[in-house]
Automatic annotation (TrEMBL):
Transmembrane parts of this sequence: 21-44, 64-88, 100-119, 125-147, 159-183, 195-214, 221-241, 247-268
Keywords carried by this UniProt record: Membrane, Transmembrane, Transmembrane helix
Species of the source: Glutamicibacter nicotianae
Protein name according to UniProt: Tryptophan-rich sensory protein
Lineage of producing organism: Bacteria, Bacillati, Actinomycetota, Actinomycetes, Micrococcales
Top-rank lineage group of the source organism: Bacteria
Length: 276
Protein backbone atom coordinates (compact mmCIF):
# COMPACT_ATOMS: atom_id res chain seq x y z
CA UNK A 1 0.00 0.00 0.00
CA UNK A 2 1.43 3.36 -0.99
CA UNK A 3 2.40 5.77 1.73
CA UNK A 4 0.99 9.25 2.24
CA UNK A 5 2.63 12.33 0.81
CA UNK A 6 6.00 13.51 2.06
CA UNK A 7 7.24 9.93 2.59
CA UNK A 8 10.32 8.56 0.79
CA UNK A 9 8.01 6.75 -1.66
CA UNK A 10 6.41 9.98 -2.90
CA UNK A 11 7.90 12.53 -5.30
CA UNK A 12 7.50 16.20 -4.52
CA UNK A 13 3.89 17.22 -5.25
CA UNK A 14 3.11 19.56 -8.09
CA UNK A 15 1.77 23.02 -7.44
CA UNK A 16 -0.61 24.98 -9.62
CA UNK A 17 0.71 28.11 -11.24
CA UNK A 18 -2.12 30.21 -9.84
CA UNK A 19 -4.36 29.99 -6.81
CA UNK A 20 -7.71 31.24 -8.09
CA UNK A 21 -10.60 31.63 -5.69
CA UNK A 22 -13.38 30.98 -8.23
CA UNK A 23 -13.59 27.19 -8.31
CA UNK A 24 -12.69 26.67 -4.62
CA UNK A 25 -15.50 29.02 -3.54
CA UNK A 26 -17.95 27.42 -5.99
CA UNK A 27 -17.01 23.98 -4.65
CA UNK A 28 -17.47 25.15 -1.07
CA UNK A 29 -20.93 26.50 -1.89
CA UNK A 30 -21.90 23.22 -3.57
CA UNK A 31 -20.80 21.33 -0.46
CA UNK A 32 -22.81 23.66 1.76
CA UNK A 33 -25.82 23.00 -0.48
CA UNK A 34 -25.36 19.23 -0.26
CA UNK A 35 -25.07 19.30 3.54
CA UNK A 36 -28.04 21.65 3.91
CA UNK A 37 -30.26 19.57 1.61
CA UNK A 38 -29.25 16.45 3.52
CA UNK A 39 -30.21 18.12 6.80
CA UNK A 40 -33.60 19.04 5.37
CA UNK A 41 -34.03 15.58 3.82
CA UNK A 42 -33.38 13.93 7.18
CA UNK A 43 -36.64 15.40 8.45
CA UNK A 44 -34.85 17.51 11.06
CA UNK A 45 -36.85 20.59 10.02
CA UNK A 46 -40.18 18.82 9.85
CA UNK A 47 -39.85 17.44 6.33
CA UNK A 48 -40.25 13.82 5.28
CA UNK A 49 -37.28 11.61 6.22
CA UNK A 50 -35.73 9.73 3.31
CA UNK A 51 -36.86 6.38 4.74
CA UNK A 52 -40.47 7.55 4.59
CA UNK A 53 -40.28 9.37 1.26
CA UNK A 54 -41.07 7.81 -2.13
CA UNK A 55 -43.77 5.57 -0.70
CA UNK A 56 -41.47 4.12 1.96
CA UNK A 57 -39.60 1.97 -0.56
CA UNK A 58 -36.27 3.12 0.91
CA UNK A 59 -37.11 2.08 4.47
CA UNK A 60 -34.96 -0.43 6.37
CA UNK A 61 -37.37 -3.34 5.77
CA UNK A 62 -38.76 -2.49 2.35
CA UNK A 63 -36.44 -4.79 0.36
CA UNK A 64 -34.02 -7.63 1.00
CA UNK A 65 -31.12 -5.28 0.25
CA UNK A 66 -32.10 -2.43 2.56
CA UNK A 67 -29.57 -1.78 5.37
CA UNK A 68 -30.79 -1.41 8.95
CA UNK A 69 -31.29 2.12 10.26
CA UNK A 70 -27.97 2.43 12.16
CA UNK A 71 -26.07 1.90 8.89
CA UNK A 72 -27.00 5.42 7.81
CA UNK A 73 -24.95 6.93 10.64
CA UNK A 74 -22.04 6.65 8.22
CA UNK A 75 -23.45 9.76 6.56
CA UNK A 76 -22.36 11.74 9.64
CA UNK A 77 -18.77 10.67 8.96
CA UNK A 78 -19.08 11.47 5.26
CA UNK A 79 -20.62 14.90 5.77
CA UNK A 80 -18.08 15.76 8.46
CA UNK A 81 -15.36 14.83 5.97
CA UNK A 82 -16.96 16.92 3.26
CA UNK A 83 -17.11 19.91 5.61
CA UNK A 84 -13.42 19.52 6.47
CA UNK A 85 -12.57 19.12 2.79
CA UNK A 86 -14.61 22.19 1.88
CA UNK A 87 -12.63 24.29 4.36
CA UNK A 88 -9.25 22.77 3.47
CA UNK A 89 -9.60 23.39 -0.25
CA UNK A 90 -10.08 27.10 0.51
CA UNK A 91 -6.75 27.34 2.33
CA UNK A 92 -3.60 28.47 0.51
CA UNK A 93 -2.26 24.91 0.54
CA UNK A 94 -5.52 23.55 -0.83
CA UNK A 95 -5.77 26.17 -3.58
CA UNK A 96 -2.18 25.72 -4.73
CA UNK A 97 -2.12 21.92 -4.79
CA UNK A 98 -2.29 20.51 -8.32
CA UNK A 99 -3.70 17.25 -6.89
CA UNK A 100 -6.49 19.14 -5.16
CA UNK A 101 -7.14 21.20 -8.28
CA UNK A 102 -7.75 18.09 -10.38
CA UNK A 103 -10.09 16.70 -7.73
CA UNK A 104 -12.11 19.87 -7.24
CA UNK A 105 -14.43 19.54 -10.24
CA UNK A 106 -15.56 15.97 -9.52
CA UNK A 107 -15.94 16.91 -5.84
CA UNK A 108 -18.20 19.80 -6.84
CA UNK A 109 -20.19 17.54 -9.16
CA UNK A 110 -20.55 14.89 -6.44
CA UNK A 111 -22.02 17.50 -4.08
CA UNK A 112 -24.59 18.56 -6.68
CA UNK A 113 -25.52 14.95 -7.43
CA UNK A 114 -25.90 14.27 -3.71
CA UNK A 115 -28.34 17.16 -3.36
CA UNK A 116 -30.14 16.13 -6.55
CA UNK A 117 -30.62 12.56 -5.27
CA UNK A 118 -32.29 13.76 -2.08
CA UNK A 119 -34.50 16.13 -4.07
CA UNK A 120 -35.76 13.50 -6.54
CA UNK A 121 -36.40 10.99 -3.74
CA UNK A 122 -38.46 13.59 -1.89
CA UNK A 123 -40.44 14.04 -5.11
CA UNK A 124 -41.01 10.28 -5.26
CA UNK A 125 -39.06 9.79 -8.49
CA UNK A 126 -37.37 6.49 -7.66
CA UNK A 127 -36.41 5.71 -11.25
CA UNK A 128 -34.67 9.06 -11.60
CA UNK A 129 -32.98 8.55 -8.23
CA UNK A 130 -31.37 5.34 -9.55
CA UNK A 131 -29.88 7.24 -12.48
CA UNK A 132 -28.63 9.99 -10.17
CA UNK A 133 -27.02 7.63 -7.66
CA UNK A 134 -25.18 5.69 -10.36
CA UNK A 135 -23.95 9.01 -11.76
CA UNK A 136 -22.69 9.76 -8.23
CA UNK A 137 -20.91 6.38 -8.12
CA UNK A 138 -19.26 7.17 -11.46
CA UNK A 139 -18.22 10.62 -10.22
CA UNK A 140 -16.63 9.22 -7.07
CA UNK A 141 -14.89 6.49 -9.08
CA UNK A 142 -13.50 9.28 -11.27
CA UNK A 143 -12.15 10.93 -8.12
CA UNK A 144 -10.55 7.64 -7.09
CA UNK A 145 -8.72 7.37 -10.42
CA UNK A 146 -7.47 10.96 -10.09
CA UNK A 147 -6.26 10.34 -6.54
CA UNK A 148 -4.35 7.29 -7.74
CA UNK A 149 -2.76 9.16 -10.65
CA UNK A 150 -1.52 12.18 -8.67
CA UNK A 151 0.46 13.09 -5.59
CA UNK A 152 -1.07 14.84 -2.56
CA UNK A 153 0.63 17.95 -1.30
CA UNK A 154 0.77 16.83 2.32
CA UNK A 155 -0.23 14.10 4.74
CA UNK A 156 -3.17 16.26 5.78
CA UNK A 157 -4.42 16.47 2.21
CA UNK A 158 -3.93 12.73 1.74
CA UNK A 159 -5.97 11.76 4.79
CA UNK A 160 -8.75 14.27 4.17
CA UNK A 161 -9.29 13.10 0.61
CA UNK A 162 -8.92 9.36 1.11
CA UNK A 163 -10.93 9.14 4.31
CA UNK A 164 -13.74 11.31 2.95
CA UNK A 165 -14.09 10.21 -0.64
CA UNK A 166 -12.88 6.63 -0.18
CA UNK A 167 -15.57 5.99 2.44
CA UNK A 168 -18.09 7.99 0.39
CA UNK A 169 -17.53 5.79 -2.68
CA UNK A 170 -17.92 2.59 -0.68
CA UNK A 171 -21.16 3.63 0.96
CA UNK A 172 -22.69 4.91 -2.28
CA UNK A 173 -21.85 1.58 -3.96
CA UNK A 174 -24.00 -0.16 -1.34
CA UNK A 175 -26.68 2.55 -1.48
CA UNK A 176 -26.92 2.20 -5.27
CA UNK A 177 -27.79 -1.49 -4.93
CA UNK A 178 -30.39 -0.78 -2.24
CA UNK A 179 -31.80 2.10 -4.30
CA UNK A 180 -32.15 -0.10 -7.38
CA UNK A 181 -33.88 -2.81 -5.35
CA UNK A 182 -36.33 -0.21 -4.00
CA UNK A 183 -37.12 1.06 -7.50
CA UNK A 184 -37.68 -2.47 -8.85
CA UNK A 185 -39.96 -3.26 -5.92
CA UNK A 186 -41.96 -0.12 -6.65
CA UNK A 187 -42.51 -1.54 -10.15
CA UNK A 188 -43.59 -4.86 -8.68
CA UNK A 189 -40.52 -6.73 -9.98
CA UNK A 190 -39.76 -9.81 -7.88
CA UNK A 191 -42.36 -9.04 -5.24
CA UNK A 192 -42.93 -12.28 -3.32
CA UNK A 193 -40.96 -14.29 -5.91
CA UNK A 194 -38.91 -17.29 -4.78
CA UNK A 195 -35.83 -16.18 -6.73
CA UNK A 196 -35.36 -12.82 -5.00
CA UNK A 197 -33.32 -14.07 -1.97
CA UNK A 198 -30.90 -15.90 -4.26
CA UNK A 199 -30.54 -12.87 -6.51
CA UNK A 200 -29.98 -10.66 -3.45
CA UNK A 201 -27.13 -12.94 -2.38
CA UNK A 202 -25.59 -12.66 -5.87
CA UNK A 203 -25.64 -8.87 -5.55
CA UNK A 204 -24.07 -9.01 -2.07
CA UNK A 205 -21.26 -11.18 -3.41
CA UNK A 206 -20.83 -8.78 -6.33
CA UNK A 207 -20.59 -5.82 -3.94
CA UNK A 208 -17.92 -7.63 -1.92
CA UNK A 209 -16.06 -8.39 -5.16
CA UNK A 210 -16.17 -4.71 -6.11
CA UNK A 211 -14.72 -3.82 -2.72
CA UNK A 212 -11.87 -6.29 -3.14
CA UNK A 213 -11.22 -5.01 -6.66
CA UNK A 214 -11.01 -1.40 -5.47
CA UNK A 215 -8.61 -2.43 -2.70
CA UNK A 216 -6.42 -4.26 -5.21
CA UNK A 217 -6.46 -1.21 -7.49
CA UNK A 218 -5.80 1.43 -4.86
CA UNK A 219 -3.95 -0.47 -2.15
CA UNK A 220 -6.22 1.23 0.41
CA UNK A 221 -9.09 -0.20 2.44
CA UNK A 222 -11.26 2.90 2.98
CA UNK A 223 -13.81 2.02 0.30
CA UNK A 224 -13.89 -1.66 1.26
CA UNK A 225 -14.54 -0.80 4.91
CA UNK A 226 -17.56 1.31 3.93
CA UNK A 227 -18.92 -1.43 1.66
CA UNK A 228 -18.44 -4.00 4.44
CA UNK A 229 -20.28 -1.69 6.84
CA UNK A 230 -23.26 -1.56 4.48
CA UNK A 231 -23.25 -5.31 3.81
CA UNK A 232 -23.12 -6.09 7.52
CA UNK A 233 -26.11 -3.88 8.23
CA UNK A 234 -28.04 -5.45 5.33
CA UNK A 235 -27.37 -8.79 6.99
CA UNK A 236 -28.42 -7.49 10.40
CA UNK A 237 -31.63 -6.06 8.96
CA UNK A 238 -32.56 -9.39 7.36
CA UNK A 239 -31.97 -11.30 10.58
CA UNK A 240 -33.71 -8.92 12.97
CA UNK A 241 -36.12 -6.76 10.96
CA UNK A 242 -39.64 -7.47 9.78
CA UNK A 243 -38.47 -8.45 6.28
CA UNK A 244 -36.44 -11.46 7.38
CA UNK A 245 -34.36 -13.85 5.32
CA UNK A 246 -31.73 -16.03 6.96
CA UNK A 247 -30.11 -16.71 3.59
CA UNK A 248 -29.63 -13.01 2.81
CA UNK A 249 -28.86 -12.14 6.43
CA UNK A 250 -26.00 -14.60 6.86
CA UNK A 251 -24.78 -13.88 3.34
CA UNK A 252 -24.57 -10.18 4.15
CA UNK A 253 -22.61 -10.78 7.34
CA UNK A 254 -20.37 -13.34 5.65
CA UNK A 255 -19.62 -11.10 2.67
CA UNK A 256 -18.82 -8.22 5.02
CA UNK A 257 -16.36 -10.36 7.01
CA UNK A 258 -14.70 -11.81 3.92
CA UNK A 259 -14.41 -8.36 2.36
CA UNK A 260 -12.74 -6.93 5.45
CA UNK A 261 -10.31 -9.80 5.83
CA UNK A 262 -9.58 -9.98 2.11
CA UNK A 263 -9.01 -6.24 1.79
CA UNK A 264 -6.68 -6.19 4.78
CA UNK A 265 -4.69 -9.05 3.27
CA UNK A 266 -4.50 -7.37 -0.14
CA UNK A 267 -3.49 -4.01 1.31
CA UNK A 268 -0.91 -5.60 3.60
CA UNK A 269 0.57 -7.60 0.73
CA UNK A 270 0.77 -4.53 -1.52
CA UNK A 271 2.40 -2.56 1.27
CA UNK A 272 5.03 -5.28 1.64
CA UNK A 273 5.66 -5.35 -2.10
CA UNK A 274 6.06 -1.55 -2.41
CA UNK A 275 8.02 -1.04 0.80
CA UNK A 276 11.69 -0.04 0.23
Amino acid sequence: MSSPANSPDFPLPARTATASWTLPVTTALALVLAIAVSFIGSGALGGTPIQQAAGGYLSADATLLAPAGPAFSIWSVIYAGLAVYGIFQLTPAGRRSAWAARLRMPALLSALLNAAWIAVVQLGWLGVSVAVIFALVACLAWMLSIMMAGTPGSRTEYWIMWLTFGIYLGWVCVASIANTAAWLLSLGVGEGASWTPGFAVVLLVAAAGIGLGITAYSGRIFTAVAIAWGLAWIGASRLAGSNQSELVGYAGLGCAALLLLGSLAIAWRQRGVTAP
